[in-house]
Amino acid sequence: MEIILSLVRFLFHLLVGLGLWLLVKPLIEGHLQQFGRKMDFRMRLRKNRMGQRVSRLQAKGLSRHLDDLLYFADRKYEPGISMLRFVMRTGFVFAAVFLSALLTLKELPGHLSFHNPFLEGMAFDGGGPVKGAWRLPLFLALLAASIPYLRMRYNYAQRQVRGSYDLLEVITIAAKFTHLSVDSILSKTGELLSPDNVLRTPLRLLGAAFANYSNGYELSAEASRFSAAIGTTFAVEFVSDLLYCEKEGTRHLKSSLLLLNRSMEQQRETILTVKAGSRDAISLGLYGNLVVLVASVGTFMYMLRPSVYFKLQFQTTVGLTFLMVIVTGLFVSFLISTMLASTKLDYH
Fold it and tell me: 137: burial class by Cβ within 10 Å (0-12, 13-18, 19+)?
């Protein structure tokens, strides 16, 4: 009963923290946007002054890493602002979980001791404050603070795959406006893209870069960022055509885009054919092993009784070893099946 009450206290502390965040967020949003724009402007100014050397140093930093991920993972990406917003959100999650867990432990009547889970379980020992109460809250806070980053990486990977296919729509529309300048082509294409196209924001930023760049290296860096976010050879070819046309004119752009469109259509048909032939194997890798595991565990628990099964599984070396092997195999199988199910539209 004490464990349940402690969990309820912890959830109420988190609820109070969420309420404080909702109250503070509108007050700091304006200052955050202003500071983010200033920081992005200063970064771009330093790039223009110092050139390639500073950009290479920035590419190795944490802020650059987060900004590159948010560039594609955030639907409403804004240079400089999105990175600051993500850092503040992660810091708030860390502080809220740490303080909530610490306050919850401080409110406990005594020591929380862990015994054999099959015999005694958890118990409260009376007397004295909890010693080293910061360790568990710190661990929980670090674990919770990693969730926004992991979620961002997952969204980035998913949008990369979708972006490789959505690039085909971009090239199809862009081929209709090759009589315009490159920045106008990108602007017109962005306006005509479907609402669910993940390249709308990156394409808008790429068009702004072609319209407002101050030197060739700045334009090349922004174009490389766009192609690296998609991560396919088709994206590199598309960006290379745009850079060439910016220097030499758009006379050959239409034929180049049509040829690229034809290659992407052929590759997409090949990928769809291969996926259709291996759909059963992919589904089996995703869900088949998990279904077999649940059925096997349920059968053994029914035959041996749950208490005996848990002792054999978690209190013996053989049981723990086989559990680790099974879980590792399931994870590897899930990763392979996920990769096969979400193949990028690329030459390979």
Answer: buried
